[in-house]
């Protein structure tokens, strides 16, 4: 009888040890997942940095274009993606404007660059306006002053 009870106690201890080992393994897996996967905040920060970099590059390109050389941008339909992107890009524009003193021309260039980024992000490249048939003759080509 005593041997039987000792055997049951031993089985109970083995089961408890196995449960503890399984719990430890689960905790280790959770810790590994938390460490290796970036948080939503880190992903948002990375996305914001890319958006800022893209906007800076576009702003630099736009500075060297005359008004008539700028591509006509499509009118965008308002939806949740557009609103979210506008909020993000407005924040990035604020950061850029705080970094340097800018004149009105730079602000206009930055605004056009931001609109270009938004349009390119939300529209496929094939939807760009290619036909300028109905444009007035004085708007078709750049004229030197």
General description of the model:
With 145 residues, the protein is an all-alpha fold. The chain folds into two domains: 1-37; 40-140, no CATH class. It is 70% helix and 0% strand. It has five helices and no strands. It has helices at 2-36, 40-63, 80-99, 104-122, 137-140. α2 packs across α3, α2 packs across α4 (104-122) and α3 (80-99) runs antiparallel to α4 (104-122). It is rod-shaped, with a radius of gyration of 30 Å. It starts with a helix and ends in a 5-residue tail after the last helix.
**What is the chain-wise order of helices and strands?**
HHHHH
Terminal-residue CA separation:
110 Å
Q: How many domain units?
A: 2
Number of strands: 0
Shape: rod-shaped
Q: What is the radius of gyration?
A: 30 Å
How many helices? Answer: 5
Helical residues, percent:
over 70%
Q: Report low-confidence residues grouped into runs of 5 or more.
A: none
Largest sheet: none
Oligomer: single chain
- Structural class of the helices, strands and pairings? mainly alpha
What do the pLDDT scores average to?
A: 81
Strand content: under 5%
What's the SSE blueprint?
Layout: H1 2-36, H2 40-63, H3 80-99, H4 104-122, H5 137-140
Helix pairs in contact: 2-3, 2-4, 3-4
Give a quick summary of the entry.
This protein has 145 residues and is mainly alpha-helical. The chain has helices at residues 2-36, 40-63, 80-99, 104-122, 137-140. It contains five helices and no strands.
Properties at a glance:
mainly alpha; 2 domains
């Amino acid at each position: 009888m005593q041997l039987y009870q000792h055997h049951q106690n031993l089985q109970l201890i083995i089961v408890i040890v196995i449960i503890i080992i399984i719990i430890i393994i689960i905790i280790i897996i959770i810790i590994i997942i938390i460490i290796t996967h970036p948080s939503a905040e880190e992903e948002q920060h990375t996305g914001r940095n890319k958006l800022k970099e893209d906007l800076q590059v576009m702003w630099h390109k736009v500075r060297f274009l005359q008004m008539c050389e700028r591509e006509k941008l499509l009118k965008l339909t308002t939806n949740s993606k557009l609103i979210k992107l506008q909020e993000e890009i407005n924040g990035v524009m604020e950061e850029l404007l705080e970094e340097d003193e800018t004149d009105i021309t730079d602000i206009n260039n930055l605004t056009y660059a931001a609109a270009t980024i938004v349009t390119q992000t939300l529209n496929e490249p094939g939807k760009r306006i290619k036909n300028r048939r109905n444009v007035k003759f004085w708007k078709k080509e750049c004229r030197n002053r």
